[in-house]
Amino acid sequence: MSKQDWRKLDESDVRVRPGKGTRPRSKRRPEHADAETAMVIGVDRGRWTCAMESGAVVTAMRARELGRTPVVVGDQVGIVGDTSGQPDTLARIVRVEERTSVLRRTADDTDPFERVVVANASQLIMVVALLDPPPRTGFIDRCLVAAYAGGLEPVLCLTKSDLASADSLLALYTELDVPVIVTRFDEEPAALRARLTDTVSCLIGHSGVGKSTLVNKLVPDANRAVGVVSGVGKGRHTSTQAVALRLPEGGWVVDTPGIRSFGLAHITPDDIVKAFPDFAEAAEECPPGCGHLGAPEDPGCILGELVPDAPGRLTSLRRLLASKAGLDEHPE
After folding, report:
1. Which helix (H) or strand (E) holds 278?
2. Closest to 51 (Cα-Cα) out of 253, 42, 33, 201
3. Which of 5, 120, 221, 328 has the maximal Cβ count within 10 Å?
4. What is the CA radius of gyration of the chain?
5. Reduced to 3 states, what is the DSSP secondary structure of residue 322?
6. What span, in angstroms and rounded, lies between the C-alpha atoms of 154 and 147?
């Protein structure tokens, strides 16, 4: 191009390509009115297995507009795309419905990061062996606290009753009115099966207590791995991920990995007291920041004075509060 031609050019001849950030963006998300409802039954490396109301089981990814919204087993979600459940198809989760209950835990009592174990379960089945491995009351208490705080009904399921009596353990929880189911290896868990029918229930327990054995009896095609108890009385982890399994009689049972500890860093003493209607109102009269443990930890606590007719329940409540505070002798 000659100098003369260059002189004829002005700024109107310059073509400026718009940058990526100049396009106006809308904050309105698509409504996805055509989304179908499903329940999350498994999670694996960024893919969610979902059971449709039609009965189909589909694999889905989380839609971009959800960002990092957590999606866990038990969540009710809205799904669009290919929901046929055919091999090599992939749908999208575009909505997570409000949860009715949440079971949360932390790695320990100082960990600020809480993990959602399962959503929307109506019952927490605490599976505890009466022997081999021996029962740990601190673990039961912590599960009770998490259930009460998360809106689940706790149920105590005692296994291996052919090896030891349940009487002494049950005496500790009489005042809490926790439903109890006692099972043994050589019998079908008929009472547990009836309790789980037509509900969404979560099974939790230490490794080696017989949880996977129960699941295999409840859901014959589950094929959950069964392990052995180590020489030091702690089981080996046989379930590695939480998964919801459909019960033949109707309903779902969520099998969770065996855990060694149950942190409660995300729960406050008042969260626990709220689960006891006879103490919840009285607790409002306690000093600010009261842990409701009584003397010497909380000398200003007046729960016992305001509700004098329930000494057994107060003792049980304070045992749960001590578990939350890390004062229990056997937290695991």
Report:
1. helix 277-283
2. 42
3. 120
4. 26
5. helix
6. 6
Among 204, 101, 114, smallest CA distance to 151 is for 101
Residue type, 189: P
HEC sequence for 117-182: EEECCCEEEEEEECCCCCCCHHHHHHHHHHHHHHCCEEEEEEECCCCCCCHHHHHCCHHHCCCEEE
Which one-letter DSSP state was computed for residue 32? Answer: -
Amino acid at 153: E
Token pair for 39: 């329940």
Residues 6+ apart with CB under 8 A from 45: none
Q: What string of DSSP letters covers 174-223? A: GGGT--EEE--TTS--HHHHHHHTTSEEEEE--TTSSHHHHHHHHSTT--
Q: What angle do CA 42, 47, 48 make, to 5 degrees?
A: 35
Residues in the chain: 332
The answer to whether 317 and 325 have CB atoms below 8 angstroms apart is no
Q: Which of 284, 272, 275, 125 lies closest to 210 in space, CA to CA? A: 125
Which H or E element spans position 77? strand 76-81
- The answer to whether 117 touches 104, Cβ cutoff 8 Å, is yes
The letter for the amino acid at 332 is E
Which residue type is seen at 225? A
Residue indicated by tokens 């959950």: 224
Nearest to 210, CA basis, from 163, 177, 148: 163
Q: What is the pLDDT of residues 103-157, one digit of tens each?
A: 988 767 777 777 889 999 999 999 999 999 999 898 899 899 999 999 999 999 9
Q: Within its chain, how far is the Cα of 141 from the centroid?
A: 16
Q: What is the pLDDT of residues 176-209, one digit of tens each?
A: 889 999 999 889 999 999 999 999 999 999 888 9
Helix (H, G, I), strand (E, B) or coil at 313: helix
Q: Are 250 and 197 in contact (CB under 8 A)?
A: yes
What would the pLDDT profile of 222-262 be if each residue is shown by its tens digit?
775 554 443 434 444 444 578 999 999 999 999 998 776 67
